[in-house]
Amino acid sequence: MPLLLLFLLLGTLAYMWLARRNATLTRHCRWRLDRTTGPTAWRCAACGAETTAPQGKSPRDCLRP
To answer: Which superkingdom does the taxonomy of this entry point to (predicted)?
Structure first.
């Protein structure tokens, strides 16, 4: 029984780590394409951060200081 609880705990921690590791989907930043600067320029509507991304893809990382 204690071995089962240990596996359950380790599995839960591994799931939480993997979910956090892949969750850089700009939860706080709201990226908008800024066509006045260029076709690949993006500006965050929440914090004002600016970045570029490949054409057809939006940024994934939050650049909030």
So the answer is: Bacteria
d(CA 11, CA 35): 45
Residues 6+ apart with CB under 8 A from 25: 60
Q: How far apart are CA 54 and CA 61, in angstroms?
A: 14
In total, how many domains does the chain have?
A: 1
Instruction: Take residue 57 and report the two structure tokens written for it.
Output: 């893809």
65 assigned to some structural domain: no
pTM here? Answer: 0.53
User: What tokens appear for 31 in the block?
Assistant: 């990226």
Angle at 50 between CA 45 and CA 56, to 5 degrees: 85
43: in domain: yes
